[in-house]
Specification:
479 residues, mainly alpha, two-stranded antiparallel sheet, 19 helices, 4% strand
């Protein structure tokens, strides 16, 4: 095995972040192997419809689908300045019986566009499996912590209580929305099919001597061989680049879901409530040895920002595809489409790792709840006062004074919120401390959080986790 090249730039997505499965999918062997399979499907279908292509030519093509001499391809491309023709000649070299039939009637986009659609559909399938793995891990987390009261936040300010498990269902619901989008896009993604140079199928009409029915059947047969339900109804030289925008919109949606999750984890780690995994020998800071930074969640956010920046790129490309096509899409798409998938794949590798290793600190969570809970219990405290014969407005004023004093004390360094003790000691309030503490039990303030977790997991998550799966290797977080 040759040593890696350390003198040339290598994408971090390849050598640091993305999974082997996604890297293989977007690698040259897969892409150009698909080109050859597309040429084979075209020739087989043409032969079945009456074009005089000998069986020996078909057999020769079939025998060399993955026998790609990339050095020969590079030499042909230097000569022709055309990547598709370079591969046509290289395929002809290893399948000489098929040389004169390879790419018959086709334009370059027959292989480039159709292969791209296959790659995107397979890429969506890989993302789907990783999302389902992440969903399964969160399912276990939500079950375990369904009853644990935690401080909820609106506007990044303390609000009513939730539970740790209920908060996890918010992350899971975003994943379910992404999964529905992924599956819809996979099921409805069209093939480009056999459309010819400007989408008119003129070359194939000539090949079949004006037989329109055979041209239509050729398109259908190739779609079927490549396992697509249908081709796009009409095209220019390329399929509409709006399709790319739709696909990258779904991919970016997955990245946004992960980024939202990572932001919540980063803040919870700052609060000391929940932490991402931290390995025994991991270093959080080169200067501050004590630090345990949420580096994986931060990396999720960084990669997601990159993916989100690529989403509008696809619409911008579509917007300038004048008439039947312009070539200013090509170099752009070679970068934007694979890197969107690779970066989102890397994000999900990280997200799975974080979810599986989340560390919850109930004592810190309870301490933060205790700091705020007396304030949240004020309505019930007023009711208790009125039941004891007091005046509602008087109770409100007493509680208001003590709550403001207790809040200021906490901000000025008091170890805990002592509002209940202040009220119990106030003769004007007259409710024993034990009664006040019973009112301020956290489980009384989580609403239907626990029940919502159970219902959500049973009714919405379980059906997704019961679907047929394609097991994926669990990838390590490499850096």
């Amino acid at each position: 095995m040759s040593a890696p090249d350390r003198t040339s730039y290598q994408s971090p997505l390849a050598d640091r972040y993305a999974s082997r499965a996604m890297l293989t999918l977007w690698g040259p062997q897969t892409r150009y192997g698909l080109w050859r399979r597309l040429w084979l499907a075209l020739a087989e279908s043409q032969r079945a419809l009456g074009i005089d292509i000998p069986e020996a030519a078909i057999a020769d093509m079939r025998a060399h689908l993955d026998d790609i001499d990339f050095d020969a391809v590079a030499e042909y491309e230097r000569k022709f300045r055309h990547d598709v023709m370079a591969h046509v000649h290289a395929f002809g070299d290893v399948a000489p019986a098929a040389r004169k039939f390879i790419h018959l009637g086709a334009t370059s986009c027959y292989v480039t566009d159709n292969a791209e659609l296959i790659l995107m559909r397979r890429g969506l399938a890989l993302l789907r499996e990783k999302l389902l793995d992440t969903l399964a891990a969160l399912d276990g987390f939500a079950r375990e912590w369904r009853n644990e009261p935690a401080l909820g936040y609106t506007h990044l300010q303390p609000a009513q209580l939730t539970t740790v498990g209920k908060r996890a269902t918010l992350w899971m619901q975003d994943i379910l929305l992404d999964l529905a989008d992924l599956e819809y896009r996979m099921e409805t993604l069209p093939f480009r099919g056999v459309k010819g140079t400007t989408g008119t199928q003129a070359s194939f009409l000539t090949l079949f001597e004006g037989d329109h029915a055979k041209v239509r059947e050729l398109d259908r047969m190739v779609c079927e061989k490549m396992e697509f339900a249908a081709s796009i109804p009409v095209s220019g030289q390329t399929y509409s680049r709006k399709v790319d925008a739709q696909v990258l919109g779904v991919v970016a949606g997955v990245a946004a879901t992960a980024s939202k999750f990572s932001g919540d984890i980063r803040m919870l780690q700052a609060f000391g409530e929940i932490e991402e995994p931290f390995e025994k020998n991991q270093i959080g800071s080169s200067a501050m040895a004590y630090k345990r930074n949420p580096m994986r969640s931060e990396r999720i956010a960084a990669l997601a920002r990159f993916v989100l920046s690529l989403e509008p790129n696809a619409n911008q490309t579509h917007a300038v595809q004048y008439f039947e096509r312009t070539l200013d899409d090509s170099a752009n798409r070679r970068l934007a489409i694979p890197e969107s998938f690779l970066a989102t794949d890397a994000i999900l590798v990280l997200m799975q790792n974080v979810v599986r290793g989340l560390e919850v600190h109930p004592a810190r969570i309870r301490r933060r709840v205790d700091d705020e809970l007396p304030f949240m219990a004020t309505e019930e405290l007023i009711v208790r006062f009125v039941r004891a014969g007091g005046d509602r407005q008087e109770a409100h004023e007493i509680i208001r004074g003590h709550s403001i004093a207790a809040a200021r004390a906490v901000k000025d360094g008091a170890p805990r919120n002592d509002m209940l003790e202040r009220l119990a000691a106030d003769p004007a309030f007259g409710v024993p401390l034990e009664d006040l503490q019973a009112v301020a039990e956290p489980s009384r303030f989580v609403g239907r959080s626990t029940e919502q977790v159970d219902e959500f997991l049973a009714e919405h998550v379980a059906p997704w986790l019961a679907k047929p799966r394609t097991p994926l290797e669990v990838e390590e977080v490499r850096v």
